Amino acid sequence: MAGPKQTPDESALLEAMVVAARDAGTKILELVATGYKVEIKADASPVTICDRAAEAIILAALATAAPDVPVIAEEEVAVGRIPAHGDTYFLVDPLDGTKEFVRGGDDYTVNIGLIEGGVPRLGVVFQPPLDILWGGQVGVGAFVEEGGTRRDITTRPLGDQRAAVASKSHFNQATADYLEQAVGVCGHVSVGSSLKFCLVAQGMADIYPRLSPTSEWDTAAGHAVLLAAGGRVDGPDGGPLAYGKTDFLNRGFCATGGWEAPLIGPLLKMLAGDGDVPQES
User: Fold this and answer.
1) Strands, DSSP E only, in 223-278?
2) Where are the alpha helices (DSSP H) in the chain?
3) Domain C-terminal end among 153, 173, 203
4) pLDDT of 88-121, one tens digit each?
5) Residue 2 included in any domain
6) Structural domains counted in the chain
7) Could you give phi then psi for residue 181, rounded to 5 degrees?
8) In terms of domains, do 15 and 147 share one?
9) What average pLDDT does the structure give for the chain?
10) Residue 1 domain-assigned (yes or no)
11) Per-residue pLDDT tens digits for 129-153
């Protein structure tokens, strides 16, 4: 794959992120086995001890692996702890897909991403209940670890047989209409969390449109994996989805296997006018 050469420092950091994500996932599974209570945060989203314990493990691991790189983590931000940072920092979602998690689903993930200059550089996404982990270094390549082995992954060319992945919580008519415009009539799989990025990165789907807001820590890790696998993620105006926004909020985006999809900006404006742009996790 074309791009900058892998450096030992980045390689070591990516492996440290892999270990941190796996350790956090192990802790989540331990807490699931013993039971936990669900709390509601100020933004009305659910949170559990699993989120907080996983985040603590990741924060400690990153402080050792990259002590000079600030970490912006979901639960830390929720209580007002946002470190001073420049254009290089980690974005962490210790348990992405909490809504599905508390319902007993298995499509939740641990997300760790590294941002440099407004774009994802490294990413790790781990699905604890199935013991599947995706990782990527942009410009070098992406991989999946499953069944005790690691193998490289790449996106697939857009062919005659097309498939989409979409939000499990809010697949609506607007999303269906957009997909028909982008790739024609095709099947779609509804999946929670950042797994949607990984399915496109692994060549199991062609497109993932998002027509509602997400936080930057929801997307950074999966975005990095997809870019490393040869894909792209465009913002509402068609340019690359950028990071470093003051509110850490993405308005919407479209992720593909590397090809240019129709703009989602006009559709977002129409939905906003209808009051039909739900926040989703």
Assistant:
1) 232-234, 249-250, 253-256
2) 8-34, 49-65, 74-78, 98-102, 173-183, 195-201, 216-228, 265-274
3) 153
4) 999 999 999 988 899 999 999 999 999 999 999 9
5) no
6) 2
7) -65, -40
8) yes
9) 91
10) no
11) 999 999 999 999 999 999 999 999 9
Question: Could you tell me which residues come within 8 angstroms of residue 3 by beta carbon, excluding any fewer than 6 positions away?
Answer: 138, 139, 140
Give the separation between CA 39 and CA 279, rounded to whole angstroms.
18
- In whole angstroms, give the CA distance from residue 269 to residue 143: 36
Q: How confident is the model at residue 198 (pLDDT cuts 50, 70, 90)?
A: very high
* C-alpha–C-alpha distance, residues 183 and 104, integer Å: 33
Q: What is the CATH number of the domain that holds 209?
A: 3.40.190.80
Q: What pLDDT is attached to residue 274?
A: 57
| Cβ atoms of 124 and 138 closer than 8 Å | no
Residue 170's pLDDT is 65
Structure tokens given for 125 = 């996404």
For tokens 């410009």, name the residue. 139
Q: Which residue, among 181, 272, 223, has the nearest Cα to 93 in the 3D structure? A: 223
Contact 75, 47 (CB under 8 A): yes
pLDDT, one tens digit per residue, over 202-255 is 999 999 999 989 999 999 999 999 999 999 999 999 999 999 999 999 999 999
Distance between CA atoms of residues 139 and 224, nearest Å: 10
* Domain range enclosing 65: 8-153
Last residue of a domain, one of 133, 153, 173: 153
The C-alpha atoms of residue 225 and residue 117 are separated, in whole angstroms, by 17
